[in-house]
Specification:
The complex is a heterodimer of chains A (483) and B (515).
Chain A (H helix, E strand, L loop, with lengths): L3 H4 L3 H19 L2 H26 L5 E3 L4 E3 L1 H28 L5 H18 L3 H19 L6 H32 L4 H9 L6 H17 L8 H8 L2 H24 L6 H22 L6 H22 L2 H26 L2 E2 L2 E2 L9 H4 L1 H15 L5 H15 L3 H26 L13 H16 L5 H16 L1
Antiparallel strand pairs in A: 1-2, 3-4
Helix pairs in contact in A: 2-3, 2-5, 3-4, 3-5, 4-5, 4-11, 4-14, 4-20, 5-6, 5-11, 6-7, 6-11, 7-9, 7-10, 9-11, 9-12, 10-11, 10-13, 11-13, 11-14, 12-13, 12-18, 13-14, 13-17, 13-18, 14-16, 14-17, 14-19, 14-20, 16-18, 16-19
Chain B lengths: L5 H17 L6 H28 L15 E6 L9 E5 L1 H20 L8 H20 L3 H10 L1 H11 L4 H30 L4 H7 L3 H18 L8 H8 L2 H26 L1 H27 L4 H22 L2 H32 L10 H4 L1 H15 L5 H16 L1 H26 L16 H19 L2 H24 L6 H6 L1
Helix pairs in contact in B: 1-2, 1-4, 2-3, 2-4, 3-4, 3-11, 3-14, 3-19, 3-20, 4-5, 4-6, 5-7, 6-7, 7-9, 7-10, 9-11, 9-12, 10-13, 11-12, 11-13, 11-14, 12-13, 12-18, 13-14, 13-17, 13-18, 14-16, 14-17, 14-19, 14-20, 16-18, 17-18, 17-19
The chains are: A mainly alpha (483), B mainly alpha (515).
């Protein structure tokens, strides 16, 4: 009896892991024709239950499990809700696509489910070991689903590229962890924080270890200069997988960065802030400039996501409670915008085949005014133009940066956002100003249309009820810094 | 509160109607178009009725009290939770007439586009109604973040209007307009955030009373200037304006000239001067310099134009040069004159763009050379054109005279040289407008394609009638408008002088700079 309550904080993860194994068995032994449908549906149910567990069972207060390796606090709950929503949407949006491409297999939802477990462990990691464990569980699943379209050269290439570079970054991370351990003799976040809090000059070896850890994590969020894999993987992977990549793993990795940087390494902020500032500026600039020349919309979204990572890192660089709040708000809004945009991309078909060229959208406002309007809302939101939600995401990270005195960073950030506005506007221009190309097919799937419209309504009407999200994010940020 | 939130109703009514219009669908595009036009016109007229009601206090409305400088019809609501930005609306003597101007021009725009816009009528009307919401909201906002949301949100419908219904180079013009103004705005956003952290509030009246440190004022003033100078537009960041005006559809030009340019001047009056008085005094010579260049240079450029819309666009830059001189001359006559000049220009420039639109709809050319001798076929048109041409030049009895005279009187008190130099702009203004009028209206009608051109029809007369009334009313009874403005301007100047006195400097900026 005495042992059970200690497991309580990890109940959602445990439930999801068990559910994943059951579903794997179910898929393997069920009759082949209906297995995929059943498993997909049950995966959605399992994720919804996990969401319920996160929100209603483990929320409220801070608790640790497994000898302090695993922590649940307001921050973890907030991030897990985002991760689970992202995964849920990804599975929901994949069904139609996979069936259409003829690559639907029951392993797909199960892999996403396991990746989600990994992400939740990342979010709750309170120890460099559990951090690595969650990260690898997530990454291994992601490598496989990137290459899920086995017969497609691009998909296989994407998976391989992702795997090779991902393994390299994991190696760097592990190396960094070992150096940190070597210099401090501790891998628990609490223990590390205690040592650093004593103060004094950090040893140079420790700084090197910290740099390696940051490099490993920067790879996972695809921040410049560790972004090289992003465009290729985004373009090559099946589109719903790209949608998944662009949200859930990024959110989980940001949770890691925030927790690692502000909790154990918080006292060393002067050491790591300059690194974060540099990669934030580089990401914003590259995301803005490199996207201009793109013709493939998935590649464009890859560069766009690099740019957005730069803005979110601005909040990390601030290193304050306002900064964490800014990142949380930013990620929540980013999740909705990106899911919606990818729902639109997944609806781009002509004569039954997927098209990915930006020019294929020409004249969409005439042939499908609803989708054009929805996509326009997402583009203005991604560009950060008020009154759309994306503006408020940017507003809060800029506020954090100004409050922390990072004026140059903020100015470079807004300038990059003007450049970035150009390519988002270009999509609006192609849809509204250009002469009609051959019209796209009318979207068929109900679920995609629903995701699209709901996301667009959220983005367009966020301005009327921003209070709940801002307050929740504020409380979550407070819980991270209190711990 | 208990009172009816008229400002919010007025602000959001057009958008609510616009959302409704989106759902009008029919097999026959003509049915959709006529329903949408009617709905949009009614919505904008209802908005105008509310705006008018608030001004005059007719019937169920509270009366706008011209004797006080306080914000009136104030509304306050939660927005971003505790300690965050709030939803605050209100008007004072400075903003009241800009609200009226926005509400006044929108129905005219819809009426002017009645037959000119044939494609995607529904989207067009929705864009205009959303634009109206954003414009009115911007002038009513009493929270600086709320202001920013409206201020920058205006770019979205305007981008669409220029890009979809514009001329041949519409894409270039739309992008230039959007990115130019966005670049200025984002710097202002950073300054707004910095102000928030310094003062701990985003409430505009509280920020006006706060008193920022001098060094911070300088940086913030520059950031705000980046935004407002592009919007006004001041030389040398005016280059987006001719492109946007030329390519925009007629009604788009009307809103651009009539309201969007005023956003810059309003911004100076609402933010730069009251919140950063020391920086404003410090930069006054700089503003004078740019304004003088704008007045003289763009007047000369206007003289050389062959495209009618471009000519009027450059004349707008010149007229707005008067406005910026007036605002920074900082005395009662100059500031009242600057506001009056903005209102007058809003009416006159809008009318001139509509006048160009009339012949453009018939001949599809904006080149001055394509016309000549129109007086023979279009006497009514020639008369209307003459009235507004003379109003633009500043003929006594029209609105243009009052604004320019007040600015000149005020500027003369502040700095004689500035007054003398901008006076040349009045002469050049008369030159290019009269020259334009002679080439288009007078002379022999030699071009065959003009021989069958028709005079103004009833709808067009209906569009011009309110503008004619407005321009004459403003010219003959200016106190109707100057009265409500007076208290707010007096308060603005008093606070400005007090802030400078408290900072231990004299209003004379040259002395300040020399120290």
């Amino acid at each position: 009896m005495a042992d059970l309550p200690i497991m309580m904080p990890a109940v959602p993860e445990m439930f999801l892991a068990v559910a994943g194994m059951v579903l794997l068995l179910l898929g393997a032994f069920a009759p082949a024709d209906g297995a995929e449908r059943t498993v997909t549906k049950l995966t959605l149910v399992a994720m919804a239950v996990a969401l319920g567990l996160v929100v209603f069972v483990v929320s409220g207060g801070t608790a640790t499990a497994f000898g302090g390796m695993f922590i649940t606090d307001g921050f973890a709950v907030f991030m897990k809700v985002l991760v689970l929503l992202g995964s849920l949407m990804a599975v929901l949006m994949s069904r139609e696509y996979l069936a259409h491409e003829g690559i639907g297999r029951f392993e797909y939802p199960v892999l996403i489910l396991f990746a989600t477990v990994g992400m939740m462990v990342m979010v709750s990691a309170n120890n460099l070991m559990s951090l690595y464990l969650g990260l690898e569980l997530q990454s291994l699943c992601l490598y496989v689903i990137a290459a899920f379209h086995r017969d497609s050269l691009r998909s296989s290439e994407a998976g391989l590229k992702y795997f090779v570079l991902g393994a390299l970054s994991s190696g760097m991370l592990l190396y960094g962890i070992s150096i940190v351990y070597g210099y401090t003799g501790s891998i628990g976040f609490a223990g590390l924080a205690e040592q650093f809090a004593i103060g004094g000059q950090a040893e140079i070896g420790l700084i090197i270890g910290l740099v390696f850890v940051i490099a490993g994590l920067a790879f996972k969020v695809s921040a410049v200069p560790f972004h090289m894999w992003t465009p290729d993987v985004y373009e090559g992977a099946p589109t719903p997988v790209t949608a998944f990549f662009s949200v859930a793993p990024k959110i989980a990795a940001f949770a890691l960065i925030l927790r690692v940087m502000l909790d154990p390494f918080g006292p060393l902020i002067e050491e790591w802030r300059q690194i974060i500032v540099a990669i934030a500026v580089a990401s914003m600039a590259l995301g803005a400039y490199a996207a201009i020349a793109q013709t493939n919309i998935k590649r464009l979204m890859a560069y766009s996501s690099i740019g957005h990572v730069g803005y979110a890192l601005m909040g990390v660089a601030a290193g304050t409670q306002d900064g964490v709040r800014g990142v949380l708000i930013y990620l929540a809004i980013y999740l909705v915008m990106n899911i919606g945009t990818f729902a639109c991309i997944l609806s781009m078909r002509r004569h039954g085949d997927m098209v990915e060229g930006i020019d294929d959208l020409a004249g969409l406002s005439a042939s499908n005014p609803r989708m054009a309007l929805v996509l326009t809302a997402f583009m203005f939101s991604l560009a950060g133009i008020p009154w759309f939600a994306g503006f408020f995401g940017k507003l809060y990270v800029f506020m954090a940066a100004i409050d922390a005195g990072l004026y140059t960073l903020a100015i470079l950030g807004v300038l990059a956002s003007v450049v970035a506005a150009y390519y988002y506007l270009r999509i609006v221009k192609i849809m509204y100003f250009d002469a009609a190309a051959e019209p796209l097919d009318r979207p068929t799937g109900r679920s995609l249309g629903l995701v699209m419209v709901v996301a667009a309504l959220l983005v367009a009407t966020f301005i009327f009820y921003p209070g709940p999200l801002v307050n929740r994010a504020g409380e979550a940020a407070a819980s991270l810094l209190a711990g | 509160m208990g009172e009816i939130p008229w400002l919010s109703i007025m602000t959001f009514l057009p958008t609510v109607v616009a959302v409704g219009l989106w759902f009008i669908n029919d097999e026959d595009p003509d049915v959709v178009a006529s329903n949408v036009r009617g709905g949009a016109l009614l919505a904008s007229l209802a908005t105008l009725a509310i705006a008018f009601g608030l001004w005059t206090g007719y019937g169920i409305f509270n009366h706008f009290d011209p004797a006080t400088h306080e914000f009136q019809f104030v509304e306050h609501g939660e927005w971003f939770g505790k300690g965050g930005f709030a939803y605050r609306m209100g008007v004072d003597g400075i903003s009241l007439f800009f609200v009226l101007l926005s509400a006044f021009l929108t129905p005219l725009c819809i009426l002017a586009s009645w037959t000119a816009i044939k494609t995607r009528v529904k989207e067009y009307m929705i864009a205009f109604l959303v634009l109206e919401t954003l414009m009115i909201g911007m002038f009513c906002a009493l929270d600086i973040v709320l202001f920013y949301v409206f201020f920058e949100g205006v770019l979205i419908p305007m981008f669409i209007i220029i890009g979809v219904w514009g001329g041949p180079r519409r894409v270039y013009a739309a992008f230039k307009f959007f990115l130019y103004t966005l670049l200025g705005s984002v710097l202002m956003l950073l300054a707004i955030i910095a102000m928030y952290y310094q003062a701990g509030t985003t409430d505009i009246p509280a920020l006006m009373a706060f008193g920022f440190p001098r060094d911070m004022q300088i940086y913030m003033w520059l950031a705000f200037f980046a935004s407002f100078a592009v919007k006004v537009p001041m030389w040398p960041v005016h280059t987006w304006l001719p492109d946007a005006h030329v390519e925009a559809p007629t009604a788009g030009s009307v809103i651009l000239a009539g309201v969007l340019l005023k956003m810059g001047g309003y911004g100076f009056l609402r933010f730069s001067v009251p919140m950063m008085p020391e920086a404003s005094a410090y930069f006054t010579p700089f503003v004078y310099g740019l304004s003088i260049v704008a007045v003289i240079y763009t007047s000369l450029v206007a003289l050389a134009q062959t495209d009618m819309k471009k000519l009027i666009a450059y004349s707008s830059v010149a007229h707005m040069g008067f406005v910026t001189v007036g605002i920074f001359a900082m005395n009662q006559q100059a500031v009242s004159g600057a506001i009056f000049q903005m209102l007058s220009h809003g009416v006159v420039a809008s009318a001139l763009f509509l006048i160009v639109g009339v012949v453009y709809d018939r001949m599809h050319s904006r080149e001055i050379e394509s016309y000549g001798g129109l007086v023979h076929r279009m006497p009514k048109y020639a008369a209307v054109f003459m009235l507004f041409m003379l109003a633009s030049v500043g003929l006594p009895g029209t609105s243009g005279f009052v604004g320019e005279l007040l600015v000149m009187v005020g500027a003369f008190q502040a700095n004689t040289w500035v007054a003398a130099l901008i006076a040349t702009g009045m002469i050049l203004g008369a030159a290019y407008m009269l020259y334009l009028y002679r080439r288009v209206i007078f002379g022999e009608m030699v071009k065959d394609e003009l021989k069958s051109i028709l005079d103004l029809d009833r709808r067009e007369v209906l569009v011009f009638a309110p503008l004619i009334v407005a321009v004459l009313w403003m010219g003959i009874f200016p106190m109707t408008f100057l009265g409500p403005i007076e208290a707010s301007v007096a308060n603005l100047i008093e606070n400005y002088q007090a802030a400078l006195a408290a900072a231990g400097s004299v209003p004379d900026a040259h002395a300040l700079a020399a120290r």
